[in-house]
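Format notes (please read before filing issues)

Several people have asked whether sequences and structure tokens are stored in separate files. They are not. Every record keeps both together, in the order shown below: the sequence lines, then the token lines. Line labels are part of the format and must not be stripped during preprocessing.
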Amino acid sequence: MKQFIFLLIFSPVFIYAQFGNRNLPPESWTRDVKYVAITSKEVLADPNEIHKLKAIEHASYICATAIPAQIKFSDFSLVEILPNNDKVYRLLIKSPGALGMMLMFENFKLDKGAKLWIYNKEKTHFAGMYSEKDNYQTNGEFLSSEVLGNEVIVEYLEPSQMHTVDFSITKVYHYFRGLKSGNGNGFGSSGSCMVNAACPEGAIKSAARAATCRIRVTGPSFSGFCSGTLISNTSGDGTPYIISANHCSAKSSLSDLINWEFDFLFESPSCNNPPIEPSALTYKGCTAPAYSGTDNGENSSDFLLLKLNSNLLTSTHDFTFLGWDRSDNNYENTVCYHHPKGDIKKVSTSSGFTSKVSYGNNVPNTHLALTWTPTAKGYSVTEEGSSGSGLVNNDGLLVGTLTGGSASCDNLSGVDMYGRFFVHWDKFGTANDRRLKPWLDPGNTGATISKSLKLSGAIIGISSHQMEEHLNYSLNLNQLKINWIKRGYDINIYNFLGQKVYQACTNSEELNVDFASFTKGIYIVEALNENKRAVMKISW
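Then the structure lines:
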């Protein structure tokens, strides 16, 4: 039996996947707290390991090395007893030479009411507030966000009725690049030739711009950046698939994917570079349903299909799922949105034709090659961290994902190569985890093209009147029973493309709709009565 899921469109709750409350500074900052007596632990990065990570090719833009640490927090932290008998534990962690740090915890299980922050001694940058909402890993691991500086304080607030904290710090991620004073992770790191996505060039393919995200890739020994694209399937059901490059997962395992982060809307609000780092809409954790193989594109098209652990349809944000074209073609006038070196979103444009080439001279025609074209605002190309970003054709559909190339701000005429979506689809075997076909065409429609879709109540071909009332419903098998307080109203039902697939009117307060013949996907149910309107979103 198929099931309905009802989602209120104008929900006041903004959901960050698997995150607790954010951007709440430590409560101790409002008190006069002296840090002289804080116990400190020092961890040292291996210069040889940093050198090796910088030299790795065909990987993410690696910015940090992981330093093993076994620090049981309760054994090393000092405690302050507050007037209400709450306890505050603090520990200073030093990593000489670090531009910033992330911390990996084990036995991370915060009780209700407990709070944790990580911040630098200067009180200019912090991560948190972490709470019981962050106890999402079944194995008790938790990876913090980065904090600027080579000395950071871990502060844990334990309510008086709670037992002593028992978590440990097992790794310190030591940033050796990708951070600048006053800036967060990656911001401001890209080359000077890059053009912001908010420039006029970026308006050419607005769906691709909206669907592009920055990926913070984390492995057992490193952390870095790639780019990815939120992509549609033929069902239009909002499954949160993100396509990137398989080489971005080098040195990572499937168990590491729980710590990967995906930043949407990380871009400048204008064509100019902003003076401060813009905020992002961040989701954490994913799985990898399919990938092209273990090589770096020499013998494959180098794709990585990820599925977020979060249901994006519960967010109040209007997410765009980019459409695709799996045709065996070359393309003219292509565009790429990406996050070079983890920086804010940039756009690169090419007015010429692509050509079908091999990557590594092994398997022919696995990639599309191109050169970039100067525009009014610059001569944007790609860099490390751009890997995995989508190549978009003149119709605004994704046709490839970036593997690599020679283009840079120092080599504007260099050639970049994108793994072909045509090859990603089903050209490297029949196993489901080696092709896109079973995931992006779950109904086996045979479609060559999938349209982009934006999942929100107000944007799917429906007028944007304020919703004043809710619809009530009941469900019996495939029969949707709609009830409204208005006697006599019109019902319109739209699919995810904005097409009206059903309409009816009733003279009573109740209407029955048979959904048995409806295809799987997202639907918007709209009720109208004079000046009143009610809407609900259905996933069928």
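For reference, the curators noted about this record: The first strand starts at residue 5 and ends at 7. The CA atoms of residues 15 and 315 lie 5 Å apart.
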